[in-house]
Amino acid sequence: MPNAATESKITAKQLPPPNSDFYHYADTLNGDERAILQRVRTFMESKVAPIINKYWVEDAFPFELLPAVKELNLGGLGIQGYGCAGGSQLLVGLIGIEMARVDASIATFFGVHNFLSMGSIALAGSEEQKQKWLPPMARMEKIGCFGLTEPLVGSGAGGGLTTTAKREGDTWVLNGQKRWIGNAPFCDISIIWARDVDDNQVKGFIVENKTTPGFSVEKMENKIALKVVQNGQITMKDCRVPEANRLASGAQSFRDTARVLRGTRYYVGWESTGCAMGAYEHALKYAQERLQFGKPIGSFQLIQDLLAKMLGNITACQGMVVRTAQLADEGKLTDQQAALSKAFTTSKARETVSWARELLGGNGILADYNVARFFADAEALYSYEGTYQMQNLIVGKAITGFSAFI
Question: What's phi and psi for 203, nearest 5 deg?
Fold first, then answer.
């Protein structure tokens, strides 16, 4: 008679592989876009997955992967022209899922560069600025970051920025600090949002990190989430930025900043969904292989109940983010729709990864089994790009007609 381990090996050959795209959303892409998505999946699974736990534990970024990232030709994804990759918003989102399904930090690195930094220039920059900056950023010869959050200003950025900008002739003088800025410790270009002391309006500036006197960055240490992302605290002391580097076309108030955040906010919905998918797939594989009482734990009712609830959360989130992509492609996506997507998906991701950690028992807190990384990273996704509560207040204002903001 074969023993339990032998029976498990025989059974494993017939088991379905973990698949978190239960309703086949990726199949709705056209052939060319499916090929791009497959290229990203191959890269993430073959290059990132084998090494990412090591970098996550060490709070380090895998810079050696950047040449291969460049070869994916994804710079400027979702942006048309200027040497950018273009593509539909559905492709943008599904690539975000593929990245986050393996590692949310890599998805965040890409999102900050592509959507926050490049997106600011694409949405609010002049034609000259687009021609100058977008092509090298699309080739990822120049990496960008996005400086909005401050040490004392998070959710109140709309009316309380303390970073100031003062015009002196053809130059702007920036003073202040920015905090939690992804990519800041190593990037080339920072999009800095500051309050004009003369008209009290928020304006955007392209700051060249490595050649601007008075601009310094300190890497933030001891994070417990998105540890591969290199976050920095930026300090600006009389930084002089030419008028040519002010985002003059569409950055005259915080309303213009919010236009950038609308797109990136719903991108976090895709990231969160991918994070949940990654945790689910690792938990499912573990359940298929882990033996207790002579059986794979995946054959137990309580484990199957957990897995089905996880997949239900994921599928609900996929449906929501796919619809937001359709609305974005049609030019109909509103701030409140993006806000609801961000709030719902991050909340469900948080719940899903906690069930995955529960399923693994003690092994769920070891980075070696991957789920702990998704479990921790979901906490950052839940908070950044606007907290859960702030998103709900945006939705609440839209559906009631009353503003509950202070």
Answer: -130, 155
Residue 218 has pLDDT above 60, yes or no: yes
pTM value surpassing 0.90: yes
* Final residue belonging to a domain, choices 138, 155, 183: 138
Query: What does the alpha-carbon distance between residue 366 and residue 209 come to, in Å, rounded to a whole number?
Result: 37
pLDDT tens-digit readout, 264-283? 788 899 999 999 999 999 99
Q: Identify whether residues 41 and 126 lie together within a single domain.
A: yes
Residue 120 sits in a domain whose CATH number is 1.10.540.10
Domain edge (last residue) among 184, 217, 245: 245
Query: Whole-angstrom distance between the N-terminal and C-terminal Cα of the chain?
Result: 71
In a shared domain, residues 183 and 168: yes
3-state percent helix, strand, coil for the chain, nearest multiple of 5: 55, 15, 30
For residues 238 and 356, state if they share a domain: no
Structure tokens at 115: 């959507």
Q: Tens digit of pLDDT for each residue in 298-320?
A: 999 999 999 999 999 999 999 99
Closest CA to 233 of 253, 251, 217: 217
In the predicted model, is pLDDT for residue 190 greater than 50? Answer: yes
User: pLDDT at residue 183 above 60?
Assistant: yes
Q: How many domains does one find in the chain?
A: 3
Compute the Cα dihedral for 224, 226, 227, 229 and give only its sign: negative
* Cα 204–Cα 80–Cα 250 angle in degrees, nearest 5: 25
Q: What is the pLDDT of residue 1?
A: 36
In a domain, 405, yes or no: no
Say yes or no: 97 and 212 in one domain. Answer: no
Is residue 7 scored above 70 in pLDDT?
A: no
Decide if 383 is inside a domain.
yes
Residues 6+ apart with CB under 8 A from 145: 112, 113, 116, 117, 181, 182, 183, 184, 187, 189, 190, 191, 232
Give per-residue burial for 276-292: e unless 16+ CB within 10 Å, then b. bbbbbbbbbbbbbebee
Domain extent, residue 343, equals: 254-400
CA 225 to chain centre: 13
Listed residue (351, 339, 281, 349) closest to 318, CA to CA: 349
Q: Are 262 and 368 found together in one domain? A: yes
